[in-house]
Target: DUF3019 domain-containing protein
Amino acid sequence: MYSKQTSNTSNLNSGTFLLSLLLISISTSADEVTTLPKLAIQPTQCVSMRQGQDCFVNVDVSWQVVKKSDYCLYSTQVSTPLKCWSNSHIGNFQADIFVTQNVTFTLKSQNNNVYIISSVLELAWVHTTQRLSHSSWRVF
Model:
């Protein structure tokens, strides 16, 4: 009878130990996810009526990193920074823009111009341009 109690106690201790390891591994992986840099764009698409038309959109770009430092936000539309932040780990940028093609927003470190993260604002359209072939309108 004593041996059964010892066996149950050791199973209970090993079960508690395994549960503790599982909880530690879950919290570690959750910490890793929150340490990744984030860059969000709203809206994610700019939609024009027809293919080839420019699109006008009010874009809101927000970012977050773990380490406070100096950062700048860039766009593929212009070569200069859209906005820079000093000693920050979070930022927001909002502007009205004309889109003629997909626009990539990139967060870089201001100190050494190192790429941190980027995200794309996609250009989409409701109707595609349909071109008629020259042969379709010829009489002969």
Observations:
- The chain has a mean pLDDT of 79.
